[in-house]
Amino acid sequence: MSNENFYTVEQISEMLQMHPKTIQRYIRESRLKAQKVGKSWRVTGHDLSLFVEGGKDQALAEPYPGLQSIVGDAEREIKVSSVIDFPVHNSGEAVRIVNWISATINSCPPEYGYKSMTSQYIEPDKIVRIMLWGSPAFTAVILDALGNMEMEAKE
User: Fold this and answer.
1) Model pTM score
2) For the chain, which domains are there?
3) What distances in angstroms separate CA 73 from CA 2, 30, 76, 113, 115, one per listed residue?
4) Quick one: which of 122, 143, 120, 141 has its CA closest to 130?
5) C-alpha count within 13 angstroms, C-beta hemisphere, residue 26
6) CB atoms within 10 A of CB 53
7) Over its length of 155 residues, how does the chain's per-residue pLDDT go in tens digits?
């Protein structure tokens, strides 16, 4: 599997002979790292390899996924989500903001844990809608940076 390849939930479910809803659940539970592209999830070849080599077996060994976190697991992590409507002048500015956030996400230290972002440019409203999901520390860094960008834009 090449690291440049991206796979859909349907492709992964066929390869692993698992139901697509199971793959989607693994993505929701952060067992399988994925990026949202439009309304679909995409998984890199690298992340799929990591999942197959370790994550899938662990996930299949647990008969009731998520039960451990309900009954009390010292390792569980708090996850938060945020939706930000950031005003922009045009699509070019929206692309610059999204690219900047993507670069920031990719440079975050591993201690921030799983993190993800999706975005949408809404032309009639002249906004870029940014949806973040991850640890509180990660979300705080991105929200702070977006706040600083807004303040600079007003000056």
Assistant:
1) 0.50
2) 6-70 (1.10.1660.10), 80-154 (3.30.310)
3) 35, 16, 6, 16, 20
4) 120
5) 28
6) 9
7) 344 578 899 998 888 888 888 888 888 888 888 888 878 888 888 888 888 876 544 443 343 344 344 444 434 678 888 899 989 999 999 999 888 888 888 777 777 777 888 889 999 999 999 998 888 888 888 888 888 877 776 66
